[in-house]
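Lab meeting, item 3. Inverse folding demo.
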């Protein structure tokens, strides 16, 4: 099947590449000529494990191509995916200008029936708006389909190739059959394709991400409660997660959620509720708690060093990306922590396996950057752990003590065993567990 993907951000590039992997001919469109030229030459614009292999293979076999010419891409395409940014506006609502602008451009170019798919995360009613724009600019028949993505950064290729479910929102029978054929190779293991109306499909994505964000936030609240009553959140997490009705996933406490999806989607759903005169109390609380949780480590540091004790201190920070196996720093808790520390008069040297180039673009020389995890410790008064990269899980603790000015760790991801930290002689302050003193 011939396919066009409009937008080569994270969702667009993963979608286009994975669709090409099952034999489709995919043309990806982007307005940035420099980016398109780099992709044509095999240069990946994002870091995502496993994607580079599929990317290069499908370029070599000429199933995956890139262009800045919208007309060239959509002319042969049976299905056109819109994978465009929907950033939050000043009021928190999703900005649909890129999606609706692309719909208008497409309408002026199509000459035969096309299936136009909103792949971006969009508010309820977006398919209706896209339909209205298309109808206002063409008499050619078309169908608008809502097909939300459920890709987890770090395992996006696996999520696309072997999805838990595929959600397709359309009332057009022809479009339903086309989308069913397109996704059939990805659900051979028996996972469902769920057909529904467009509005239900659009709300499904927001509901899923908001529920997961709520689950994370609830465990962060439990962790904070554990510290007050002397319980261990790891034990509570295991006891709760063993209940099949709840499950083990998304129960790990930490310094809050970040990334491109959860913050934006929770905010957008809350805003949509407000626009429909509904007070979504749970989501409003989730956002409030998460903002506080991002700075939880700094609160612990102030308690340890005193109200003005951060001034003049130098800290090592492990982890900048919002989660491991990605270079995405959007809404990353590390950025909030850095802002707090620098504002308090402290200095920071950070290390992250993939996120440093993006942070350098954003922060410049506001902080320093280390070549590896141990170099970051040189002259530091304490270590902060903010992202749970595998490389941070089994360090040489004796060597760390030699590098640090003092054996102090503030761990926002609970990477280490408490007894082990005590045996190694560290002051160790984590989330929802007792503090280990030297």
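The presenter then showed the designed sequence:
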């Amino acid at each position: 099947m011939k396919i066009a993907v409009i937008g080569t951000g994270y969702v667009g590039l993963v979608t286009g590449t994975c669709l090409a992997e099952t034999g489709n001919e995919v043309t990806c469109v982007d307005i940035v000529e420099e980016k398109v030229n780099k992709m044509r030459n095999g240069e990946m614009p994002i870091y995502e494990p496993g994607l580079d292999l599929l990317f290069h293979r499908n370029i070599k076999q000429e199933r995956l191509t890139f262009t800045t010419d919208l007309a060239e891409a959509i002319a042969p395409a049976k299905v056109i995916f819109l994978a465009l940014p929907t950033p939050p506006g000043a009021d928190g609502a999703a900005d649909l200008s890129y999606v609706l602008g692309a719909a208008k451009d497409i309408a002026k170019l199509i000459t035969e029936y096309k299936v136009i798919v909103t792949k971006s995360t969009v508010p309820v009613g977006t398919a209706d708006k896209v339909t209205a724009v298309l109808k206002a600019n063409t008499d050619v028949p078309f169908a608008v389909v809502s097909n939300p993505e459920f890709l987890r950064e770090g395992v996006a290729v696996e999520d696309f190739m072997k999805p838990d479910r595929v959600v397709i929102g359309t009332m057009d029978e022809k479009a339903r059959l086309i989308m069913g054929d397109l996704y059939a190779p990805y659900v051979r293991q028996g996972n469902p394709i769920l057909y529904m109306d467009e509005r239900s499909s659009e709300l499904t994505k927001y509901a899923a991400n908001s529920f997961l964000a709520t689950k994370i936030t609830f465990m962060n609240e439990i962790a904070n409660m554990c510290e007050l009553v002397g319980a261990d959140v790891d034990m509570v997490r295991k006891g709760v997660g063993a209940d099949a009705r709840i499950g083990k996933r998304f129960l790990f406490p930490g310094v809050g959620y970040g990334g491109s999806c959860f913050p934006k989607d929770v905010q957008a759903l809350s805003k949509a509720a407000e626009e429909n005169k509904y007070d979504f109390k749970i989501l409003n609380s989730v956002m409030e708690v998460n903002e506080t949780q991002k700075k939880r480590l700094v609160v612990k540091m102030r308690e340890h060093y005193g109200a003005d004790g951060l001034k003049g201190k130098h800290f090592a920070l492990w982890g900048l990306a919002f989660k491991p196996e990605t270079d995405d720093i959007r809404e990353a808790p590390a950025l909030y922590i850095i802002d707090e520390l620098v504002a308090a008069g402290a200095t920071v040297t950070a290390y992250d396996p993939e996120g440093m180039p993006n942070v350098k673009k954003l922060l410049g020389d506001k902080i320093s950057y280390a070549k590896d995890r141990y170099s970051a410790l040189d002259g530091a008064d304490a270590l902060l752990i903010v992202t749970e990269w595998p490389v941070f899980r089994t360090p040489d603790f004796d060597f760390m003590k030699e590098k640090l000015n003092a054996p102090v760790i503030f761990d926002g991801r609970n990477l280490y065993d408490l007894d082990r930290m005590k045996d190694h002689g560290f002051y160790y302050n984590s989330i929802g567990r007792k503090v280990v003193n030297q």
